[in-house]
Amino acid sequence: MNYIGSKKRLLNFLYNGISEITGLTSGTFFDGFAGTGSVGKFFQEKGFSIIANDIQYYSFIVNNGKLNIPENNKKMKKLIMELHQLGEDYEKNISDEKKCFIYNNYCAGGTQNLEFPRLYFSDENGKKCDVMRMKIEDWKDEKKVNQKEYFYLIYCLLEAIDRVANTASVYGAYLKKLKKTAQKSLQIKTIDAEISSQYSAKIYNDAIENLMNIETDILYLDPPYNNRQYAPNYHVLETIAKYDNPELRGKTGLRNYEEQKSDFCMKAKVEQAFEYVIQHSKAKYIFLSYNNEGIMSSETIQNILKKYGESGFFTQDYGRFKADKTENRNHKANSVVEYLHWVKKN
Ligand SMILES: C[S@@+](CC[C@H](N)C(=O)[O-])C[C@H]1O[C@@H](n2cnc3c(N)ncnc32)[C@H](O)[C@@H]1O
Questions:
Q1: How are beta strands 201-204 and 48-53 bridged, if at all?
Q2: Where are the domains of the chain?
Q3: pLDDT tens, residue by residue, 232-288
Q4: CB atoms inside a 10 Å sphere around CB 29
Q5: pLDDT of residue 200
Q6: Using CA atoms, how far apart are residues 316 and 314, in angstroms rounded to an integer?
Q7: Å from CA of 222 to ligand 1 middle
Q8: Which of 14, 105, 164, 344 has its CA 20 to 30 A from that of 237?
Q9: What is the CATH number that goes with domain 1-68+201-224+262-346?
Q10: Ligand 1 pocket member 311 (CB < 6 A)
Q11: Does ligand 1 come within 6 angstroms of the Cβ of 262?
Q12: Nearest CA residue ID for atom 26, ligand 1
């Protein structure tokens, strides 16, 4: 998944800095703003037990899917094959088109009566997604799958649908015409089904501010850097993950996200929220990813950190996130400086 602020390309930079400060090669690693789970996965593979959290439910699903892979991989492969086949025969398998939430709200065919028909997916992919998502819910209700398996199947569907989304990258808007990748047929696949990990992970779906009682050796913070909220940018994935028939509004069919607005995206609130976490966390070592264009300056961050112990930072030059070509035209620099701030709490 191409995700705003993904640390996929910075994993070694993070690991080297964290190892240097903590000297730890095992223990508990709490990924407080987990997003796609790339950091937690990397540290899990290095031998840490992982706690992951994110305010978005699709991220909760993705982190479960990546970090808690079901033990019975034969069963998973079989069920994914069944989902695949259901999708291939979607026309036969839709009993009631009215129940197809994604088709009816995010595809041209289902939204043709709106003033602005929505084109997030092709009609075919919208219906395929609905058929598979409904089947996963049925399997959960019939107890054919346990909770871990249920999360894993939705994770595989989210990854598959994201690959055929008709967007420039995020779901804040759709493109006017179906782009090439969006014309391709939705293909669900098993992901890493062989690699059920020996380390289990505990995943939360909450604002980090509410999880300060958690015991951990390392707390890693990777909050949003600017005022772009994640909820409206990934609202379609949130709805596919929850499949809760929300009320939608506006041209892009946004669900309500009042409860998921992040203080870390608000200039007026971010410093207080950040300091609250540093002050109340039980972790000995806290790390923060941030860059030189974020809404808190490096100086502000260091001034807060040093109140609670010895602190410092590492830096690395890093390419800019590209949502689309035009979005970057106002930026002069081609790369930004990525920071890994740290504090060893007293
Ligand atoms: C920069 S991204 C994390 C990217 C992640 N490290 C990765 O590699 O994919 C920031 C994440 O913080 C989440 N978020 C924002 N505010 C939050 C809060 N108060 N508590 C928990 N998660 C929050 C967003 O939903 C988003 O997934």
A1: parallel
A2: 1-68+201-224+262-346, 72-196+233-261
A3: 999 999 999 999 999 999 999 999 999 999 999 999 999 999 999 999 999 999 999
A4: 29
A5: 76
A6: 7
A7: 6
A8: 14
A9: 3.40.50.150
A10: no
A11: yes
A12: 35
